[in-house]
Structure formats: structure tokens, C-alpha cells
RimJ/RimL family protein N-acetyltransferase
Amino acid sequence: MAGQSAIPDDPGMDPWPFRHLVLRTPRLELRPDDDAGMLELLEVARRGVHRPEEMPFSMPWTDLPHAEMSLGALQQRWRLRAGHTAASWDLGFLVRHRGRVIGTQSLMAQDFAELREVSCGCWYGLEHQGQGFGTEAWAAVLAFAFDHLGATHAHAAAFVNNAGSRAVSRKLGYRDNGTRRVLQRDKIALQVDQRLTPAEFRRPDWILQVEGLEACRELLGA
């Protein structure tokens, strides 16, 4: 019908094939972010991501008023989508449990075709923490990177006092790879760099299900 637009059903014909990419675990579904899902994620953030006296992020975005934080988060994801190239990408997977967004798990790379290295980051709403969702989603993107994209190394970072994040990374097999000083809330804080190879990865007892990857490979340098 004239005046109507349609998203191609064939991922190979879609200019943004990431809308068809999905990772599935026993409890979770991970899809690259879209605007509707981001609005759900921002509502999760409004209800709280961490205790006020803590700050797990290098950039303290959760200190901002909700309206400012929400606009900034949307603009950041729009910039990352718009700037996506095979040489520089950041997939911000929205993590869903029973159809509801509960957090986000990022998978990032620079010059992946040559270096075969990825980095990971994540956060979840307070009400969804402590249930193993973070470990499950993190394991999902690692399995995706190692087994489906051909990554040879994965990196992560956490502040020394972020016991929860460091416990999850150790559970997955990461090893500490030095420290660095960074500013956090205008104070110097110590951050631990972590590194993981496919051989060190402590795999879950389930097999990751992946759909829609083939049309995305060229845009990931894979």
C-alpha cells in the first residue's frame, strides 16, 4: 500500500540485520537494543541499579537526574548504532527474562577482523540481581564471541571493590591481568583488568542458541 514502509523479513536484505539477531539461553533472550527496548531498560534503571553509596561505573551516569540520564543513555546508544562499522562496534544486548527487559549485556570490539578480541560490560536492575541472570547472559555473549565469531580473547574490567562483578568474572574463568588508576566520582580508584581465552572459559552446562547471525557477519568483521 502506498505510503507504508516495511522492515524486510529476510535479514540478508535488511540494511540493519542486527534487528534479527537473537541469543537464547535456558532462561534469557538477548537482542541488540532498539528504541522500544531501551525505554524498558531506562525504566529498570529508574528503579535502581546499585546502592547509592556504591558506584560500579567509571562514568557515574546513575548519579544524574532520571530525565537527564535517560536522554543521555538514548543518545549514547544512537551514536553507537550510527557509528557502527566492521572495524568498531558495540552491541548493547537487551537481556529479557519472560519477555521483560531486566538489564543489558554489551559486547564490543575494535579491529575485530585482525585482533579477534572482544570486551564485555553489563548492568541489571537491583530487583533482578542475585538470581544468576548476569552470569548466564555474560556466558551467552562469551559463547557467541568464541564459538560463533571466532574471538581468541575477551577482556573485562571491574573496580577492586566491585565484589559482585569480580566474582562473576572468576566464575567464568577470567584471570586478573593488572590494574590501572581511573577517576570515579572525581576520586582516584583502582580498576582490575581481566582477560579470558576460549580454553579458560568455564562453559555453562547448556548450549547457546543463535539466530540471525549470517547476515551480521560482515558488519562484525567476522
About this structure: The mean pLDDT is 86. Helices lie at 35-46, 66-82, 112-115, 133-149, 163-172, 217-220.
